[in-house]
Amino acid sequence: MSVLADKVIQCASCNTEFNFSVEEQEFYESKGFQPPRKCKPCRDTAKQNRGGGYSNFNRFGDRPQRQMYPAVCSGCGIETQVPFQPNGSKPVYCRECYQSSY
Ligand SMILES: [Zn+2]
Ligand SMILES: [Zn+2]
């Protein structure tokens, strides 16, 4: 019987080193899973992307979520979100219009 110990794994996505605890190792082994190659935030992000939804719920506070405000793009008129409160005096652009304005 091998004695398990916490392992440190380097995330394949963001290169952060994270702890793969004994409990997690046992859990993964009991399920027959391979050890994770990505840290928890990256796995959560991948999960969210797979689900197609862009929900900010149930984030674990690993990264402070930027407050976003709904706005309508002055360039193309689509609904978008901006990291500041639109006050109506300045045009607001969606990401695409913002980038193409440079
Ligand atoms: Zn990562
Ligand atoms: Zn636009």
Explain what the structure shows.
27% of the residues lie in helices and 16% in strands. The chain has two domains: 7-51, no CATH class; 69-100, no CATH class. It is α+β, with helices and mostly antiparallel strands and 102 residues long. The termini are far apart. It has three helices and four strands. The chain has helices at residues 22-31, 40-51, 95-100, and strands spanning 7-10, 17-20, 69-72, 79-82. It has a two-stranded antiparallel sheet. It has a two-stranded antiparallel sheet with strand order 3-4. The chain is rod-shaped and about 65 Å long. The longest helix is centred in the middle third of the chain and has 12 residues, at 40-51. The structure holds zinc ion (2 copies).
Q: Mind summarizing the main beta sheet?
A: 2 strands, antiparallel
User: From the structure provided, what is the oligomeric state, counting identical versus distinct chains?
Assistant: single chain
What binds here, in terms of ligands, is: zinc ion
Q: Please state the overall shape, judged from the principal axes of the Cα atoms.
A: rod-shaped
- What share of the residues lie within helices? 25-40%
- Placed side by side, the strands forming the largest sheet appear as 1-2
Helix/strand order: EEHHEEH
The helix count comes to 3
Low-confidence stretches: none
Beta-strand content = 15-25%
C-alpha termini separation: 62 Å
Derived structural class: alpha+beta
Computed Rg: 20 Å
Number of domains: 2
Mean pLDDT: 84
Tally of strands: 4
Tag the structure with descriptive keywords:
102 residues; alpha+beta; 2 domains; rod-shaped
